[in-house]
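Journal club side-thread
Mid-discussion, someone asked how the predicted structure for our own chain would compare to the paper's figures. Pasting it here so we can look after the session.
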Amino acid sequence: MKMRIVKIMMMAVAMVSLLPSCVNDLSPQNLGSQVKNSSNVYNTPADYLSGLAKVYASFALSGQYGPAGSSDIAGLDEGFGVYLRVLWNAEELTTDEAVIAWNDQTIKNFHWQTWTPSDVFNAALYSRIMYTVTIANEFIRQSAKSTDANVKIYNAEARFCRALAYWHALNLYGNPPFVTEADLPGAFYPKQTTPSALFTYIDNELKAIAPLLPAPLTPGGADYGHATQGAVYMLQAKLYLNAEVYLGAGNGKYTECLTALNNLIAFTQYSLATNYLQNFAADNYQSPELIFTINYDGNRSQSYGGMDYILHAEVGGSMNPANFGLGGGWAGLRTTSGLVNKFAIPVSGPDARAQFYTAGQSLVINDIGNFNDGYAIQKFTNLTSTGGPSASGNLNFVDTDYPMFRLADAYLMYAEAVLRGGTGGDNTTALGYVNQVLTRAYGDATGNITAAQLTLPWLLDERARELYWEGHRRTDLIRFGQFTNGTYQWPWKGNVPNGQATDAHLNLFPIPSTDLSANPTLKQNAGY
């Protein structure tokens, strides 16, 4: 049985806003002995585990009590304001892999790449990242006082969560405000960092916590959903693979990327799942391929964001929700011909990853607001990998966990780092890893490639085929110079039917105008 660390058990831990505060009289020591806060809630290792659960849950949920009614962040809708949901939108809706039919405020601007500093969805994403950093800081500050061996591991896990959130901030915003557990709560303006400084901080943090965390256990083991050394090495590899984006051309760290990947791949606990679709089913916790997940349970972690959003929004038109273990569909998300055409046989065929629903759907998107324009995706399901009901049996909230990091991605990253000149790897091994992924996709060696076919452009397309809708596409396109002003266009990029190049400043999202107003020391990203 998979461990559900996202069940919120903590009754009250002081959550400190990153925004400037003038309420110093609300510091824990001034609230009275009967008030539960971070200075008195932690008494046992179990208390700390409950606090850690809140840190992990900040990626999956947006409040304390379920899908609606009590958001962690005032003024932020609990449905669209879930960390995973707004992160997914930023990485997928902005690319060739996803469009959305709804007219929710400015959501279509993501695919059109016409967002502005006042965009509410961008503000939600920024706020969620900063909130996770904030509660991680507080937990790290408090757990550092304990001498218990388990609590020391919890402390390292929280540092991983903070590093992950700061990597998202670096990847999306470049130079966000920066605070750690050393910055005590009080009235001050958080100082803005730089991409190079934030890169170095994340790098050093991951190096420091790697030996403090345990090695991964067997699939679905007691550590499932927790950060292990495997998760650290994968995040290191992500950081290094994109170093030239963050630090500038000529500052590649492909050798370091290969070192991290070699450390990761050395764990024999990880292997490719025999069935590709097991990674996206309600029992995906049993997949040996998953390195780090955001966990959901249909009864204990209910949310209108995250995996509930991805699964419900992919179902519409003539699709039968029961075929996905759902009680209904939201008719929102589809894909573009840019993704479909990357498969040799776009609709169906030997590649098991081509999970397109086409009945009643048009490949051409004339109207983004029409669900029937664009092929639907049927990759994720709330049924088990054998077609049975989810463990919770809940048709409205899902059991499927979000596969943030998995081994197939690591194999493709290894090949890319080798092709980009990294040492510590070789072309033969890279080709072998890639062909393992292809053999799984085709069921045999008929889809395998030769060494001559393994090129960087081929890898960009292969990453789309293998990893679509898993939250990697924007980052990949930017790394390959194709997100904004590159030569690759897709339908409705730049808000025209056939797509057009957009300005390179859109490679970073803007610092929200609300935060610029609240913190006058911040400077806006160039171009906004």
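Post-session note: The radius of gyration is 22 Å.
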